[in-house]
Amino acid sequence: MLTIKIDDLSGPEIAKLLEEHLNCMTDVSPPESCHALDLTRLRQPGITFWSVWDEQELVGCGALKQLDNEHAELKSMRTAQTHLRQGLAAMLLEHIIQEAKQRGVRRVSLETGSMAYFEPAHRLYRKFEFRECRPLLTM
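^ that's the sequence the OP posted. Answer follows.
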């Protein structure tokens, strides 16, 4: 039985999963393209973080960063190695999108790598009608 809950990022399990996530992103992404957030940056106001549990085992996580009243960014989606390709990420993504809609968010963005490693993520996001766009430039 999987449970999704808002997480305060204080448990050792989430610290370990996020460390694994950051290490993986650093290994597979060029430095200028690694946009994963660490614990401190995920604790900022405007970010809601969810963890997914299979009873007492942490199996995944994801976050939503509110950019403005109608726009949010998906952050730190991660599935534990033991639960890959079991539908957990789709379940969590659907949950986060529904939460965003309830908040009045009309647009959800995300950044992910373009290398072959990220193809499973691309397939998932396409199923939820995300589409590729040019990188954003800001000043």
